Amino acid sequence: MSHGGNVKTSPAIVIEEPANDKADVSVVRQRIDEIDQRIIGLIHTRKVMSQQVQRTRIDAGGQRVEPIREAAITKNYCAPFGEAGSALAAALLRICRGQHATQLPDKGGR
Fold first, then answer.
1. Do the beta carbons of residue 25 and residue 39 sit within 8 Å?
2. pLDDT grade, residue 100 (50/70/90)?
3. pLDDT per residue over 28-58, tens digit each?
4. In this structure, are residues 54 and 63 in contact, taking their beta carbons and an 8 Å threshold?
5. What is the rounded CA–CA span in Å between residue 85 and residue 74?
6. How many angstroms separate the CA atoms of 30 and 37, rounded?
7. Mean pLDDT computed over every residue of the chain
8. How far is it, in rounded angstroms, from Cα 4 to Cα 35?
9. 25-109: which CATH topology?
10. DSSP letter at 13?
């Protein structure tokens, strides 16, 4: 659906900006809801992939969590979003490993 405005792109989402500032709020909110659903789907996909990595690491005798990797992820979110990016990364990392803490026990207390 084109509103005749500028189109901005990010790595995974194309966002059409309204042609003027008087866009119908309900239309914009609907678009936001659609984007939120896509984000939720991507988080679910990330969670499954994270579980695969955790399982592989544990099966190889390693730790479930790799602090250096998590620090790099946090840095990636801080770059565009600052302090809020740090909180976003922390929440994302908790989501992707939280449930798995009981499903994927570390070997040898690691």
1. no
2. very low
3. 999 999 999 999 999 999 999 999 999 999 9
4. no
5. 7
6. 11
7. 81
8. 19
9. Chorismate Mutase Domain, subunit A (1.20.59)
10. -
Residue 23: the pLDDT is 72
The pLDDT, as a whole number, for residue 13 is 60
Measured N-to-C along each axis, helices 67-98 and 25-59 cross at an angle, to the nearest 10 degrees, of 110
The answer to whether the Cα torsion of 79, 90, 103, 69 is positive or negative is: positive
Which string of b and e fits 5-37 if b means at least 16 CB within 10 Å? eeeeeeeeeeeeeeeeeeeeeeeeeebeeeeee
The residue type of 72 is A
Question: Buried (b) or exposed (e) across 50-69, using 16+ Cβ within 10 A?
Answer: bbeebeebbeeeeebeeeee
Q: What does the domain layout of the chain look like in residue ranges?
A: 25-109
Tokens coding 14? 């194309």
